[in-house]
């Protein structure tokens, strides 16, 4: 924190008042200016290409031990082993800091391999487990949730990969934005809970918010072919999850193990359950509303079981632009880390040598009521996102522990939403308060 607010609303030209705390004058080659005018027209200031550097980008990965965190490390490992920057000056990325919560052995192994200068265990009780790993020469170790924000705003860090699960990722993502960082955003809950605050901070401190979520990353890539003012609608694709073809009565008895078995993506437990209920798509509609600064009416969802087309943008003239690739998070992660550059990375590629089909169908809101909830919350805004997210985190955890049935996830979320006292423009303090309220009410409602 402690960064100077940006004083002008126009960041398309070099700005001497812009925060420079992560860059010495010798590091920066200035704003990306090798692009045509359309590529720069991403609309929102936080989607503009970051400042070009003449050295490897220094990265902090918050949630490094999780699914997205590990995929990020694979991209960096591959990139540093195989490719150099386009100007031929060494590796692209340097891991400056890593955080984990419970998987301390994994955190220690990664910190050693990547020679991380800073390591955070966000669980306050993690110090003794860290000691057992043996001292890591050259790295500074901190415990507790506040250390995440400290790492996110380290002046040496260029890019913060926000890959913590749940609203636990909110404070550190906001801290990164306040420090004017490039945030590669996987933690969709930040936008669901506090999208209006995150984007306001990004404008104020000239930070970037680049999507890692595959649908949003696809939309961001498709947006490069037109002007944001020419977008008629965006269409998020949804795999439909493991229960796409199950009837409502069958959904009553599905087990956590069945819900965790996603047909196309390998992900952490919470997002896997969210995919099974289609709450994940609900959260993504809200995420898209804020990230692309679009009214909810311009955001739609289509079920696409193959997870090859990652989303569409339809422009005013009727052209629909899509991004295709096999389901592999390494590609959107890589795109966010090196935007607007592209390089040969480790992600799987399309194979057109054998026949395959792509299917699309409208979502069934009766069987997957969580999706309808997401569309309503995206329209209403205010405190609704924080309430929906908090209630969902509690019921997902309860479902995983066998305490509630699958359909109760969506019905409980609706009940809590309908009972909360709505505020259209909540402050961060109000959001944190309503998050606590919603968690308590949800526990009461399901009797745990
Ligand atoms: P995982 O559960 O695999 O990983 C979560 C990470 O957060 C781990 O590093 C975990 O540490 C850490 N963590 C857990 N609890 C806390 C806490 N209370 N405080 C701080 N850190 C904590 O999740 P995913 O990687 O699947 O998802 C991460 C985020 O990315 C989510 O917001 C998800 O919606 C989003 N996302 C994920 C995708 C995917 O393919 N996985 C796709 C698109 C978005 P530890 O493991 O050490 O306990
Ligand atoms: Mg997604």
Task: Describe the overall structure.
There is one protein chain. The chain is α/β, with parallel strands linked by helices. The protein has 2 domains: 182 residues, Rossmann fold (3-Layer(aba) Sandwich), CATH 3.40.50; 223 residues, RNA polymerase sigma factor, region 2, helix turn helix motif (Rna Polymerase Sigma Factor, Chain: A), CATH 1.10.1740.10. It contains 17 helices and 13 strands. Helix 4 links the parallel strand 5 and strand 6. The chain is globular, with a radius of gyration of 21 Å. About 6% of the residues have low confidence. Bound molecules: NADPH dihydro-nicotinamide-adenine-dinucleotide phosphate and magnesium ion. Magnesium ion binds next to helix 8.
Major sheet: arrangement of strands: 6-5-4-3-7-8-9
The largest β sheet comes out as: 7 strands, parallel
Number of domains: 2
Using the 3D structure, state the CATH architecture of the largest domain. Answer: Orthogonal Bundle
Structural class: alpha/beta
CATH superfamily descriptor of the largest domain: RNA polymerase sigma factor, region 2, helix turn helix motif
Per the principal axes of the C-alpha atoms, what is the gross shape?
globular
Strand segment tally = 13
Distance between the termini: 38 Å
Strand content: 5-15%
Q: Helicity range of the residues?
A: 25-40%
Write the layout of secondary structure elements.
Layout: E1 28-31, H1 37-40, E2 51-53, E3 57-62, H2 67-82, E4 93-100, H3 104-113, E5 118-121, H4 127-132, E6 140-143, H5 146-152, E7 159-162, H6 170-178, E8 182-185, H7 188-204, E9 208-211, H8 214-223, E10 231-238, H9 248-251, H10 256-260, H11 269-277, H12 279-291, E11 299-303, E12 309-315, E13 320-324, H13 330-338, H14 369-380, H15 384-400, H16 408-419, H17 428-446
Parallel strand pairs: 3-4, 3-7, 4-5, 5-6, 7-8, 8-9, 10-11
Antiparallel strand pairs: 1-2, 10-12, 12-13
The chain binds NADPH dihydro-nicotinamide-adenine-dinucleotide phosphate and magnesium ion.
């Amino acid at each position: 924190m402690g960064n100077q607010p940006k004083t002008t609303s126009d960041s398309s030209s070099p700005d001497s008042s812009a925060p420079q705390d992560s860059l010495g004058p010798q590091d920066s080659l200035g704003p990306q200016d090798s692009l045509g005018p359309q590529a720069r027209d991403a609309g929102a200031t936080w989607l503009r290409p970051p400042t070009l550097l003449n050295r490897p980008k220094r990265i902090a990965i918050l949630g490094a031990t999780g699914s997205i965190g590990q995929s990020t490390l694979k991209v960096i490992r591959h990139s540093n082993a195989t490719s150099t920057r386009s100007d031929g000056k060494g590796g692209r990325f340097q891991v400056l800091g890593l955080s984990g919560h419970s998987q301390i052995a994994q955190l220690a192994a990664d910190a050693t391999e990547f020679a991380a200068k800073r390591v955070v265990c966000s669980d306050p009780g993690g110090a003794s487990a860290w000691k057992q790993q043996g001292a890591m020469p050259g790295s500074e170790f901190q415990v507790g949730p506040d250390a995440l924000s400290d790492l996110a705003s380290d002046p040496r860090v260029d890019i913060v990969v926000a890959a913590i699960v749940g609203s636990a990722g909110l404070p550190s993502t906001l801290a990164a934005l306040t420090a004017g960082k490039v945030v590669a955003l996987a933690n969709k809950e930040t936008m669901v809970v506090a999208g209006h605050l995150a984007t306001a901070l990004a404008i104020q401190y000239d930070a970037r918010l680049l999507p890692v979520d595959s649908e949003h990353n696809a939309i961001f890539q498709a947006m490069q072919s037109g002007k944001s003012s020419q977008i008629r609608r965006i269409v998020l694709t949804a795999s439909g999850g493991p229960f796409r073809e199950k009837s409502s009565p069958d959904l009553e008895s599905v087990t956590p193990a069945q819900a965790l078995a996603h047909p196309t993506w390998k992900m952490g437990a919470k997002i896997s359950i969210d995919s099974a209920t289609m709450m994940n798509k609900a959260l993504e509609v809200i995420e898209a509303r804020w990230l692309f600064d679009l009214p909810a009416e311009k955001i739609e969802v289509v079920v696409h079981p193959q997870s090859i087309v990652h989303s569409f943008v339809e422009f005013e003239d009727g052209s629909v632009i899509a991004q295709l690739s096999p389901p592999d998070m390494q590609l959107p992660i890589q795109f966010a880390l090196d935007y607007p550059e592209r390089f040969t990375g480790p992600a799987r590629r399309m194979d057109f040598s054998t026949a395959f089909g792509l299917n699309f169908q409208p979502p069934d809101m009766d069987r997957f009521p969580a999706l309808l909830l997401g569309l309503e919350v995206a329209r209403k805004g205010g405190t609704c996102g924080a309430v929906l997210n908090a209630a969902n985190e509690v019921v997902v955890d309860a479902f995983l522990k066998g305490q509630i049935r699958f359909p109760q996830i969506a019905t409980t979320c609706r009940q809590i939403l309908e009972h909360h006292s709505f505020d259209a423009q909540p402050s961060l303090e109000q959001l944190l308060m309503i998050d606590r309220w919603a968690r308590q009410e949800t526990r009461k409602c399901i009797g745990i």
